[in-house]
Design goal:
Number of strands: 10
Strand content: over 45%
Strand order of the largest sheet: 1-5-4-3-2-6-7-9
Number of helices: 4
Radius of gyration: 16 Å
Helix content: 10-25%
Shape: globular
Distance between the termini: 29 Å
Structural class: alpha+beta
Largest sheet: 8 strands, antiparallel, barrel
Order of helices and strands: EHEEEEHEEEEHEH
């Protein structure tokens, strides 16, 4: 993975502001890609996700530099036992996989200088697992979000890109700065 700086805004009103800011910088976002993921709370430094209900993924924050976070990712296919062994080897607790947050994401990405910009709108709701293989959403209340991330191999590339974006993005209205694992703590109380 690499370094990341990510901001979250409540609601989707910020999406138009973000799109306008990127257009002013002549950043052309790629096509919209949509998918559903299920996130499991395991603290701010470790994210566990069932990507597209098919592949287990563990992301771990390995370093921080101010608000920048460096993430490493390991995938396990559908092998939940391997994912649990991996967490045990890292001395990390296994999360409760019977409850989590189901997200429907609409994501667009673009390269700007030496960094990748990612704009994602999110609909989040609580979920409960139905059987071992089929997490299924059962939440009745949905929560809308938009997130912007800048990702790169170096912190300098991220900071240079965010310097261009920050004036137009209204960062003072962001609800949270950090990765998806930390954001789960906020959204969990809403759904």
């Amino acid at each position: 993975m690499g370094w990341e700086l990510r901001y979250f805004w409540k609601g989707q009103e910020m999406e138009a502001t973000i799109q306008q800011a990127l257009a002013e910088l002549c950043v052309a976002l790629g096509p919209i890609k949509e998918r559903t993921d299920v996130y499991f709370s395991n603290g701010c430094d470790c994210g566990i996700k069932l990507r597209k209900k098919k592949e287990w993924e563990v992301k771990r924050c390995s370093a921080r530099d101010g608000q920048l976070e460096q993430w490493t990712k390991v995938t396990f296919g559908r092998n939940e036992a391997s994912m649990r062994r991996h967490l045990s080897q890292l001395s990390l607790p296994a999360p409760d996989l019977s409850k989590g947050i189901a997200t429907t994401k609409r994501r667009q990405q673009a390269w700007y200088h030496r960094a990748q910009i990612e704009v994602t709108t999110i609909q989040a709701q609580s979920y409960q697992a139905v059987g071992e293989e089929d997490p299924s959403s059962h939440g009745t209340q949905s929560s809308s979000w938009v997130t912007v991330a800048v990702e790169a191999d170096t912190t300098r590339a991220i900071l240079e890109t965010y310097a261009k974006l920050s004036e137009a993005l209204s960062l003072e209205y962001a609800v949270f700065c950090g990765g998806y694992p930390g954001w789960l703590g906020i959204v969990h109380h809403e759904v």
